[in-house]
Amino acid sequence: MNASNNNSTLWLCLHFPHLPLQVFTRGLNPADAIKPVVILERRRVIALNQAAFDTGIRHNNNMDTAYSISHEVISFDKDSDKELTTLTNLAQWAYQFSPAVTIRAPDVLLIDIGGSLKLFNGLKALMASIESGINDLGYTSISAINTTPMAALLSARNNAATNSDHQTADNTGAVLPSIEMTPVAYLQADKAIITALQQMGIDTVRDLFKLPMSSINRRFGIYFTDYLQRLIGTQPDPQKTIDQAPHFFSDITFMADVTNTNALIFPIKRLLDELNAFLTARQLHINQLSWKLSHRHHPPKHISIYLASPEHNIKALLQLTQLKLEQVKDVQEIDTLSLTVNTFFPADTVSGDLFQSAGYQPHLDPIKGSSKRRQRQASANALLNLLSTRLGPDACFGLSMADDHRPEKSWLRLKPNQINDDTQHKTVESLPMQLAQDNHRPLFLLTPPRALQRVNDAPYLNGTLELLQGPERIDFGWWDRPTSGEVITRDYYVAAHTERGALYWVFHYGEHGKWYLHGIFS
Amino acid sequence: MSRPSESLPLLLKKTGLWRASHLDCEFNQGTATGYDILDQHLPGAGWPTAGITELLFDQAGIGELRLLAPALASLSQQQGRWQLWVSPPHLPYAPALAQAGIDLGAVLIVRPTTVNDSLWVMEQALGSQSCSAVLAWPQNIHDKHIRRLQVASKAGHCLGVLFRHSQAAHQSSPAELRLQLTGQRATPLKERSSIGIQVLKRRGGWSSEPFTLDFHDQLNQVTPDFSEMIVRNPPPLEPELAFIEQSRHLYADERQQQ
């Protein structure tokens, strides 16, 4: 490769000739790939896999012919919308290699890799990682490289037609010599122009460029000459690149209905790998994702996974998905699995503690003082995710103080995703109302308070309770219900069960009101 | 053939045998309980840093949690580790925890619905290395479960505490440490509340005699009875105050007329 080309644009064209087929077959286990699959458009075979080819089915066969050749054949109608969605996903996936990615429907991606060569250790390594990535996603592509997008596209179409997908045209020098042997049939031009050229005896691009440009212009119009100039790079050719709206959606369709959720692990891994590449390319983290298990005859089933804090850990997500999937009982059949993520967070640029990766070290002194929750170990969050996924988001909660003096309202319940949020945590110091040290509070609170019997004016709980301390009068919020005339002050006492030695927090309303047990000094 | 006086130290060194009279040899430093008298009775002078501790008692409210509170407070300072409360019988009350010095950001409460789930939670949490303490109030737990928890707790360097009914004292248990707690009669003369403790099982020692531990609080302090000082019949008001009272009535009358 020329050193002078290092910083210039270099276009990679990825052509997906089997896209109509592969949008349906990529969800297959490798073991299932032996089933013959054909894609039909107007009852004609337009794409087929190797197994179908081996049975003797050919392109453009009638549907009836295909079925008469093999009764095992699985057929799908061509789905252009699905192909476009898939191509868009692939473009989002390819965004990890370069910011300039262009979609050319129906089956082509153009990527400017000129600026990425150094980052990915050269063209060879870059091409290897792109090709293996596409294979891992379950697609096959034919690639070509040239200095202009149109020339790359032309070479790719040529390669696809001549089935020379092992020889990617790696042209990084002048445009014209590399494409001059290409037949004119693969030019991006009207069929009429190409037919006219062929009738004139012009078969290759070299023949075409021997003609004077002005006569081509006169004969075929300004658009065609403009295209030719963009092809050889004498005119600039700006491309409309994809915008990276952070939205992730991908799905997999199954050949046969899946009845066992264990069989979903393989496609789940594939979708998560896709998500992984998406997140890496954009430096994003996620805190929730949702799976949809659907079947044409049943209402779809949604599975959502929430994380304690935004992160990007595909292994953990796979584990959580499996855990959640084990709880799914009421799904009989599934024919499509899809993964959607809508909310994204920018990846934390704060680099972690150098020693955090080593996990907890029992012999190291804990660092005191700085209680940044952000620095909570990844493993601690992983545990929280694990618990809230298996037990449900409501079974797990944290605690915080609240700015109120009333016992019921002086604490807050924090959801798992709030626990790591610094702003949710109110410490004793941050509250204007400070608890006096000599007002004892019980470690356990009964919610709601439990009514006690009154024996000889004293509260009774498996024996008479003796009042030790009190009363501590707590006004119970006349401002919350100003209209009711009832007594809303409570007198709290520390009471002891004299025989057993247990200490309780009891209260009564007014002088002769009912006694309630509100807390236990455990 | 070596003489007994030589082979005995060798045997002690090579095998895991220890002399019952030596409590403190070769044990890791425990987490200080915050009570000197209890530290003296425990191997490692504190709660075990890893392993299951069983607290056995009949009646909630005798101070079984207050006994743990100083240790929990110091453990809650460990960066990025949870203190997991697995299905506590009542709500742990945030202001009281804060009063005891426990960092609320470390407290995590889990309420599993089934026995299997709660055992799963305990084992995961104890073994995860991301918890400094796991407190649990199990309903029914067999010694084979406790053995698993004990192993997980060792792997995770985590203090595991099981609060159990004292009926379980008669069953054998693979726990590291077992304490029988008894409530102490509140005596009006003593300001501080107290709890009776008997060590049933500990590493490197027999069970102890029962002893009494005083908490660092004033829960038993009785508020003096001021009721005799309550004035039943207020004396007549001073003349100036009476005037103010009168004018208040006048003012009220005027407003009514309006």
Automatic annotation (TrEMBL), chain A:
Pfam families: IMS (PF00817)
InterPro entries: DNA/RNA_pol_sf, SulA_CellDiv_inhibitor, UmuC
Gene Ontology process terms (BP): DNA repair
CDD domains membership: PolY_like
UmuC domain ranges (all copies): 33-155
DNA damage found in the keyword field: yes
Keywords: DNA damage
Protein known as: DNA polymerase Y family protein
Biological classification of the source: Bacteria, Pseudomonadati, Pseudomonadota, Gammaproteobacteria, SAR86 cluster
